Amino acid sequence: MTVVGPFGLSVRDQALEADVQTGLAAVEAGLLDATKSDVPFITEAAQHLVLAGGKRFRPLLVMLAAQFGDPYAPGVVPSAVVVELTHLATLYHDDVMDEADVRRGVDSANTRWGNSIAVLTGDFLFARASHTLADLGPEAVRIQSEAFERLVTGQILETAGPQEDRDPVDHYLDVLGGKTGSLVAVSCRFGAMMSGAEESVVDILTQYGERLGVAFQLADDVLDIASDSHESGKTPGTDLREGIPTLPVLHLRAAAAAHGRPEDLELVELVDGDLTDDTRHAEVLRRLRAHPALEQARRDTVRYAEEARAMLAPLPDGYAKAALAEMCDAVVHRAG
Question: pTM to 2 decimals?
């Protein structure tokens, strides 16, 4: 048994382990190659987050999904590079929008070089992803463009907020389906499609990826509140401090509105206050960690992860299927 990929995923078959490790190494080389420019400063900025590491969650899913066809097919590794470049590009843009200071344990690009350079570097990565994508054929271009549209739509909906007649939790889950689920779904779809897997298998893995992606983000929401470490790659309470409405906070607001308990209303008032004050921020974190809203968010994470696992049922049994099921366990484990 060998541990690879994010969260210590266990691979119990030597052949699968070799395929995954070889594929991820090729993706890493492809990322470095795709982020090189004739202008040294652009290379430095574009490789800033590549070199900072990361879970490579999406490329790993590409490699595992490719096991249902020919994992050595020529389009598998480039498609993994495409999805990771797209993901990295969104991180540059997200950090500008969120005014984040740290990403993956290093200064965010906007902190180091300013917002303009960070946005333009994100655009550069999108361009390089498109260049690689063009060699994968028109169907791949269409799939990626549709996912990118969903991703941007999710970001816009998050920024705009829910309509007055829309439940904020439902709105938020739709946002996550676009912002995170869409690209994770494409990772699974590309891996299966590029490997030549049957269309029914491609569809199953796409639906699996959509649900796993939402569970993955919900686990991050829980970690932002619950973790005392830097498991999420950000300082705990970062989203809370920046006023980003994550699921535990939305559940808290719903409970306060439905039941009007004084302690809930008081906590909502604290959440809505100035959390740049470290003492106030620590108090809010302490109280949220003890609030039922956090456990409710954990249950939502488990629900999406179990839905993802259930999607795998029609697939043939084997080490790749077991690894994908273990991904669901790993996501839930992150949420405690």
Answer: 0.91
